[in-house]
Amino acid sequence: MKILLTGAAGFIGYFTTKKLLEEGHEVIGIDNLNDYYDVRLKEYRKNELEKYDNFTFIRVDISNFEALSVIFQTYKFDAIINLAARAGVRYSIVNPFVYYETNSTGTVNLLELAKNYEVNKFVLASTSSLYAGQPMPFTEDKPVNTPISPYAASKKSAEVTCYTYHFYYGIDVSVVRYFTVYGPAGRPDMSVFRFISQIYNEQPIIIYGDGSQSRDFTFVEDIAAGTVKALKPVGYEIINLGNNSPNKLSEVIEKIEELLGKKAIKEFKPFHKADMMATWADITKAKTLLNWQPQVDINEGLEKTVKWFLDNKEFAFNIKLTE
What we know:
Elements: E1 2-6, H1 11-22, E2 26-31, H2 39-49, E3 55-59, H3 65-74, E4 79-82, H4 89-94, H5 96-116, E5 121-127, H6 150-169, E6 172-178, E7 181-182, H7 191-200, E8 204-208, E9 214-215, E10 218-219, H8 220-229, E11 236-241, E12 247-248, H9 249-260, E13 265-269, H10 284-290, H11 298-311, H12 313-316
Helix pairs in contact: 1-2, 1-8, 3-5, 5-6, 7-9, 7-11, 9-11
Pfam family, one: GDP_Man_Dehyd
InterPro entries: NAD(P)-bd_dom (IPR016040), NAD(P)-bd_dom_sf (IPR036291)
Domain NAD(P)-binding: 4-305
């Protein structure tokens, strides 16, 4: 298949692109390489992908319809995987406009071009942040109409827009809702990356609340595998991709301390209003529909993540951290 993958230099985009390339697909990867977090990480991922002959990188922003149109005029795609997004719950409160520009308008642009150029398969990356206020474990069959951040609201907008294009134009859509993704070469605005870097560098880690909040931490290679499986025809489906085994933040910190052989210097702050106290994915649909389930537990995943840091210590531990 020839696949357009947006956000290719991003964390999940990198691992998903890598998996597609290794399976023999041709990937046209696009990314705007914005500076929301340290661009050196995005350059590192992009450079790794450019070692593959079946990968082409184009720098473009998905909110730019005209620039996107040129790409669709140049290539004939079998599918689109839209992983380009402005991520980060807290920063979305500070600057909501860029979240809607990328997550909502960018998705509309891609769907409109999919319609115009007869690309019948669309995979959208969405988020567990939509489940705020829902009983756990979170299932896909309940309405999610109470997003508590502009980030989550912009992702909800993208999901329902995908349904509209499915309804009117028959585009086959898989919406995959990710649960707290972590792993090597991750995002420096997320807790696992920041904690590893700060504990190693003997800097204080900030914990919002008392550390008892839990997340369904999911290893990035599992997420990439599920995203690739979501290329199958489904009609229109929303599918959770999570580990189905939540861990407390305090437990994750203890494991990182053990792997690094250092104790964390902890600084506690009030629980953030935009955060969720807990997440937990019901992955019954992913198992049934995609024949997918996670293969990497939190212990193995953290070991692999810390190993990447230690193997790339001159680079990794100097990445600028983002709140």
